[in-house]
Design goal:
- About 30% of the residues lie in helices and about 20% in strands.
- The protein is of the alpha+beta class.
- Strands 5, 8, 9, 10, 11 and 12 form a six-stranded mixed β-sheet that branches. Strands 15, 16, 17, 18, 19 and 20 form a six-stranded mixed β-sheet that branches. Strands 1-3-4-2 form a four-stranded antiparallel β-sheet.
- Helix 4 runs parallel beside helix 8.
- Pfam families: DUF2066.
- InterPro entries: DUF2066.
């Protein structure tokens, strides 16, 4: 039996009471996205809130307080079903949840794929912390080494497992002692710490100082990106061992946890393999990026969830094939890329974006697109669309002066000659041309380099913008 939400809540309560074992469907059947089952006694508001709380807790692993998110929960529910066992199965809209994440309202935390290397220096007042949090004192500062355990270290490692983090300590062998001093760890020297940490992890290292004061612990810590040598976050936590560990991991999640996506290994400037998007990934806030048309006539778009540097460059080349005059990578953060696109006169950039099958627009955030790696072809350009684009391009160039005409024609010809077989039909169905496929790419010699004034960024560098949160 299918019921509409327009029925009065009183009637629904009676029906649920009389037939709690029956199945009542609300709209379509629940999908496989953000779907949660909650107890149901006829109070939809309460059940919706409980389902929303479950979703936020699952996504953020406890780092986001659901009550702090101001949203009309009913408006983001796509469908709901009362099950045979009397539960309410609630499904939330994928695009609405993505919007909450991209706006920074939800911190998504799925753990760290790389080990978290903790350089822990005990200050002059701390030598050992027992299981009860009592502090033994010593007159000399020292670095805690791998295999050494006490109440604080045990708590740090155990909590890491719950947070999907493999926290490890350095060996502090001869190589480590030559590379890093106690003062480097105390001060959070990002350059030295990142270089010394490279043999242990390609992700995040922590430079920290543990001291004691009036029976309380004080931990000052710096999160450092090993791949770039940049300091990401610094904080001081004070309290019992448990309280300090709680704040440490909460800061780790809120400063590093953003949009989920798959990580990929690429070569850094130091020649080692680093997983750059497994620990820092995407823009948690896009409001400062100023996406869309710019005063100088360019069109800024954000492509989220690109799995690696090759795909970023593939998308750039396909922008040119689709009819854009120029495409530049202007910002990169994890798997998210900001492109600056330009067209010749009388060509609507938003219309050109419609040929990108692998780029799914965010209906709540104009200028934001999600890369779908499951789509075979990045773009599919119908003959009639290509003809219209070519016609519009020709009209624009006719109206331009001679110098602009020559420059524009040269750019278009260059982009076209890069792949003659896919100039007219990219699907590879009409004229026998090969489709643009993700797993059939040529190796690029420029990988990992950033040319001067060019659109080739260092893939190991996180570029800061008004919209990026590092």
């Amino acid at each position: 039996m299918i019921f509409n939400k327009s029925l009065s809540s009183g009637i629904l309560k009676v029906l649920v009471t009389l037939a709690c074992t029956s199945v009542f469907n609300y709209g379509l059947a629940a999908g496989n996205g953000y779907t949660y089952r909650v107890p149901f006694d006829g109070d939809f508001d309460s059940a919706h809130s409980e389902a929303f709380n479950q979703m936020i807790s699952a996504l953020s692993n406890g780092s986001t307080d659901p009550s702090a998110i101001k949203v009309n929960v009913d408006s983001i529910i796509s469908n709901e079903t009362i099950t045979d066992d009397g539960l309410l199965e609630v499904s939330f809209s994928d695009s609405a949840v993505r919007n909450l994440i991209s706006s920074g309202k939800i911190t998504v935390w799925s753990g760290l794929k790389e080990p978290l290397l903790v350089w822990l220096t005990r200050g002059t007042m701390v030598d050992y912390v027992d299981g009860e949090g009592a502090v033994d004192t010593k007159t000399e500062a020292r670095i805690v080494v791998s295999g050494e355990r006490d109440g604080f270290v045990d708590a740090l490692i155990a909590r890491g497992r719950l947070e999907k983090v493999n926290a490890i300590l350095p060996l502090n062998d001869l190589d480590d002692m030559e590379a890093v001093t106690i003062s480097d760890v105390m001060s959070g020297n990002a350059d030295k710490i990142s270089k010394a940490s490279a043999k242990y992890t390609g992700g995040i290292s922590v430079a920290s100082l543990l001291t004691g004061n009036n029976g309380k612990l004080q931990l000052t810590y710096h999160f450092i990106d090993v791949a770039t040598g940049q300091k990401i976050f610094s904080q001081t936590a004070e309290g019992t061992a448990s309280e300090v560990v709680d704040q440490f991991y909460n800061d780790l999640k809120t400063s590093l946890g953003t949009k989920k996506s798959s990580g990929t290994e690429i070569s850094s400037e130091r020649g080692t393999e680093r997983d750059v998007s497994a620990y820092l990934d995407g823009y948690s806030d896009t409001s400062g990026l100023k996406l869309g048309m710019t005063p100088n006539g360019n069109y800024l778009v954000l492509i989220k969830n690109t799995p690696d540097f090759d795909v970023m460059m593939d998308i750039k080349q396909n922008f040119l094939k689709a009819g854009f005059k120029d495409a530049e990578v202007v910002d990169v953060k994890g798997g998210d890329v900001v492109y600056s696109l330009s067209t010749v006169r009388n060509v609507n950039p938003e219309k050109l974006m419609t040929v990108f099958q692998a780029l799914e627009p965010d209906e709540y955030a104009p200028g934001v697109f999600y890369f779908n790696s499951n789509v075979k072809n990045i773009i599919v350009i119908p003959d009639e669309n290509k003809a219209k684009s070519t016609s519009s391009t020709g009209e624009g160039m006719q109206n331009a002066d001679n110098n602009t005409h020559e420059e524009t024609e040269s750019s278009v010809n260059t982009a076209t000659s890069s792949n003659e077989n896919t100039e007219t039909v990219v699907t590879g169905e009409s004229n026998g041309s090969s489709p643009i496929q993700l797993n059939n790419r040529t190796q690029r010699g420029e990988r990992g380099r950033r040319k001067s004034g060019n659109a080739y960024p260092d893939p190991n560098k996180k570029y800061k913008t008004g919209g990026g949160v590092l």
